[in-house]
């Protein structure tokens, strides 16, 4: 089994994952710092995707070309779109779509020109393993009740389905409602996943992704964002990845 890439959009999350790696050493490529090492005995490379689709696609391409990764895992946060995707829930992606891709009338809306598709699926086996890890971490509860209460989280749930990506932080109700109407099966919105999914598709490398819902993509989306990432999402990511790697043995 080759090296596994772990990609995240935020520093705070990455720090929690790096803390699980005893032997990490850094290599700079394309202005990005790639941390090589082991996680639970598995060879990994950990890197910040940076924010937005182009930045994330560059990072993913370097992972393929320079590090020859065998699999890619993405962890991060996202805005909840589906009414039951609440703050504190975890969404495991089964497929990705770029909500700001529109070459109509030349191509159907959302379709990536020359690919003949709008949706890029994640790897079923890797996704199932990630979902199992997420489910068991949520059930077990990584955070104490007081911390959950701080963020108004009661019973965090795991969802699986479509995540949409675009180069926009969706932070008003009008826009999130528009997205829900146009893409009724979208569970959450973020800014990198569909780009990484497309690069993984190009290289035939299995990809799986999870996002903790940090906001509802509405007018309050920016409130407590960093606090949430530090105290909730990064803890989830680290615990879910630790569980995921422990189960792989
Ligand atoms: N770095 C900035 C903001 C990060 S942008 C800060 O520190 O405040 C938000 C990141 O979280 C992106 O990487 C995106 O993938 C994800 N995200 C969370 N909520 C989102 C939303 N409502 N719309 C779009 N992306 C969101």
Description:
With 249 residues, the protein is α/β, with parallel strands linked by helices. It has a domain at 75-247: Rossmann fold, CATH 3.40.50.1580. It has helices at 11-18, 53-65, 124-140, 145-150, 173-182, 193-203, 225-248; strands spanning 4-8, 25-29, 32-39, 42-48, 71-80, 90-98, 119-121, 158-165, 186-190, 207-215. A five-stranded mixed barrel has the order 5-9-8-6-10. The chain is globular and about 50 Å long. Bound molecules: S-adenosyl-L-homocysteine. The site of S-adenosyl-L-homocysteine has 19 residues, from strand 5, strand 9, strand 10 and helix 7.
Relevant terms:
binds S-adenosyl-L-homocysteine, globular, 249 residues, single chain, Rossmann fold, 36% helix
Give a quick rundown of the structure.
The chain is 36% helix and 28% strand. It contains seven helices and ten strands. The longest helix is centred in the C-terminal third of the chain and has 24 residues, at 225-248.
Percent helix, as a range, is: 25-40%
Named CATH topology of the domain at 75-247: Rossmann fold
Which CATH architecture of the domain at 75-247 is right? 3-Layer(aba) Sandwich
CATH superfamily of the domain at 75-247: Nucleoside phosphorylase domain
Number of helices: 7
Q: Briefly, what CATH class of the domain at 75-247? A: Alpha Beta
Low-confidence stretches: none
């Amino acid at each position: 089994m080759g090296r596994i890439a772990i990609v995240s959009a935020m520093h705070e999350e990455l720090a929690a994952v790096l803390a699980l790696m005893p032997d990490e050493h850094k290599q700079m490529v394309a202005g990005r710092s790639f941390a090589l090492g082991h996680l639970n005995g598995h060879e990994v490379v950990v890197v910040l995707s940076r924010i937005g689709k182009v930045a994330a696609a560059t990072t993913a391409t370097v992972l393929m070309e320079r590090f020859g990764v065998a699999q890619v895992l993405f962890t991060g946060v996202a805005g909840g779109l589906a009414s039951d995707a609440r703050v504190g829930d975890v969404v495991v992606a089964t497929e990705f779509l770029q909500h700001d891709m529109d070459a109509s009338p030349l191509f159907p809306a959302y379709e990536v020109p020359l690919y003949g598709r709008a949706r890029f699926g994640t790897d079923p086996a890797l996704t199932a393993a990630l979902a199992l890890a997420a489910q068991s971490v949520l059930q077990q509860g990584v955070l104490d009740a007081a911390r959950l209460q701080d963020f108004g989280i009661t019973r965090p749930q795991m969802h699986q389905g479509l995540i949409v990506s675009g180069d926009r932080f969706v932070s008003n109700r009008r826009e999130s409602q528009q997205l829900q109407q146009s893409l009724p099966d979208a569970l959450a919105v973020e800014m990198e996943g569909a780009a990484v999914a497309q690069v993984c598709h190009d290289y035939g490398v299995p990809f799986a992704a999870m996002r903790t819902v940090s906001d509802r993509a509405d007018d309050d989306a920016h409130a407590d964002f960093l606090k949430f990432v530090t105290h909730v999402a990064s803890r989830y990511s680290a615990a879910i990845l630790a569980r995921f790697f422990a189960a792989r043995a």
